[in-house]
Amino acid sequence: MSKILIVYATTDGHTAKIGERLRKALQAQGHEITLAPVTDQPQPDPAGFDKVVIGASIRYGHHSPLIADFINRHQQSLEARPNAFFSVNLVARKPGKDHPETNPYLQRFLKRIAWRPQRLAVFAGKLDYPRYGFWDRRIIQLIMLITKGPTDPQTVEEFTDWDRVEAFAQTLAEM
Ligand SMILES: Cc1cc2nc3c(=O)[nH]c(=O)nc-3n(C[C@H](O)[C@H](O)[C@H](O)COP(=O)(O)O)c2cc1C
Q1: Which end of the chain is more exposed for a tag (fewer CB within 10 A), N or C?
Q2: Of the candidates 99, 94, 89, the residue with the CA atom closest to the CA atom of residue 147
Q3: Can you say how many angstroms the Cα of residue 164 is from the centroid of all Cα atoms in its chain?
Q4: SS3 at position 154
Q5: pLDDT tens across 23-36, in order?
């Protein structure tokens, strides 16, 4: 049994939902999971855990700066125990951009941080036009038009491959 910390950054809750799925899968194997948004105060300290997993979604090309701050502050602790990172974005719905090695956001992020996660994952996110404000909706529609995705403003669609999330949970369990 391991004590596993999952810290995540989310804006609309989808990364939290993925974190929840990881938590359930790992708990089912007898692990003790702490699932915490990076905005929690006080923030959890990775030093108190056997393994650490960090996840964040992309918004206009970037993961939340709070996640990079957390990583930079705890880099030594992260490196001292099994660790992993996952990114959530809509580009990852496209074949050829759906793996850590081929997802441009994840690759760019790794160049910006010194931490080298031992395991990586990329998950396609959720499109939820009705939830977005006017400008966000228009901009995402434009991006979807360019990338041949749904542009109907009523679209609510999860592109996440939950089998991949489960497989990542298994990878984490085996670390
Ligand atoms: C305002 C906004 C900007 C976004 N920008 C991007 C982007 O630049 N690239 C991308 O692939 N996905 C982008 N997305 C899609 C999100 O990454 C996706 O919806 C994800 O599921 C959001 O996760 P969260 O609810 O945990 O924040 C954007 C979504 C919103 C609402």
Answers
A1: N
A2: 94
A3: 13
A4: coil
A5: 999 999 999 999 99
